[in-house]
Write a structure and sequence with these properties.
Strand content: 5-15%
Helix content: 40-55%
Structural class: mainly alpha
Order of helices and strands: EHHHE
Shape: elongated
């Protein structure tokens, strides 16, 4: 057998498609000591390290921004509205509007009372009426805070019933008309 072409061992053969490994250098053997008769000159060891040259600064690599993606668009048709979901949403929104109505009426009455509007109106009407009119006029008996609050509460309750009913009726009418026409077209896009 010839020793020039050794048979590769399993696992040491290069794989197909894998990059070939660079050839390894044989280990260097230390040189043998000089001959006994040879004169060796020893240099004194320098205690100062060799000056290091600074590495040249490379500018940071510029990063190319990613191209902006094209905005996607989707055209949709609102072909049906669920009356039950419209009922729930309209009820909650009309209750919120009713609360705002009651609070606004109370705040407005308090503001007018603080400004002294009711006393001014009373004085003006009593001046026109004169002393012969009998009982002096008092606007606060007609428009007291309790009466304003109760009237605004009644208006809020009526609004809740009317807005909820009208919203459900409009949802049913939309569903009927959407079957004939096709509904409202909506275009959605990405930001």
């Amino acid at each position: 057998m010839s020793t020039n072409n050794p048979i590769p061992r399993p696992g040491s053969a290069p794989r197909v498609g894998a990059p070939a490994r660079p050839a390894q250098r044989p280990a260097q053997r230390p040189t043998s000591a000089p001959a006994a008769g040879a004169a060796t000159a020893k240099r004194p060891a320098s205690k100062t390290p060799a000056p290091k040259t600074p590495a040249p600064k490379t500018p940071p690599a510029l990063v190319k921004p990613a191209p902006k993606a094209k905005a996607r668009r989707a055209r949709l048709l609102v072909s049906k509205v669920d009356p039950w979901s419209v009922l729930k949403m309209a009820f909650l929104l009309s209750v919120a509007l009713g609360i705002v109505t009651v609070v606004a009426a109370i705040v407005l009455w308090s503001l007018l009372d603080t400004m002294g509007l009711f006393e001014t109106v009373n004085a003006f009407i009593n001046e026109i009426q004169g002393k012969e009119g009998g009982v002096p006029f008092d606007l606060l008996t007609i428009v007291s805070l309790g009466q304003v609050a109760s009237f605004s509460t009644i208006v809020a309750v009526v609004n809740v019933v009317l807005l909820t009913t009208l919203s459900v009726l409009s949802a049913v009418l939309y569903n009927i008309s959407a079957t004939l026409v096709g509904g409202i077209g909506v275009t959605l896009t990405d930001d």
